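Predict the 3D structure for this chain.
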Amino acid sequence: MSRMTLPLAVVGLMWCLLVPLPSQAEEIRLNSIGVRGGVSGSSPIGKKETEYFQQYDVMANWSMPWEWYSASGWGVGTRLMGTVGAVTVAGDTAFVTTLTPGFVFGKKDGWLTLELGGGGALFSQHHFTNQSLGGTFQFVWDTAVTAKVYGGLGLGYWFHHTSDASLYGSDARGYDLHMIEISYRF
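Done. Predicted structure below.
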């Protein structure tokens, strides 16, 4: 299996799982837009970072058609989040974009939610002064707690993990971020 086969298989699987049947297309809706930013922390999953990472991005969150909520409004839904932004490491800045399907647990109106998701990221640069991510494609895992604070405005905390999952060999290292989100929910 070549190095490109696995990322292409993951993207293909995500596409098949996330693209609804044409009869369900009207159920996909933009749920929120926002900005988030953060810095690398001292609790990496896997190998310790050798650089200090900062990442800032613009995000959009779509509600997907598969959900279950009780009459009280509590339950679980599915979402697809896309981001476009930049990661800065030791004076170098790289473009980064992510696509992350996931689950949202909490109130349907977004008053309080726990979000879990995993997907992929593409980087314009993957080698920095003292740390290599290994390649352009990376896997991401997000865990977030978000809440509405006033009208449609929301705040959130994200733990964002990026790594190659050993796709590019043992010398590649990922990074973990602690991020703060400011969003508007529709």
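The two ends are 44 Å apart (CA to CA).
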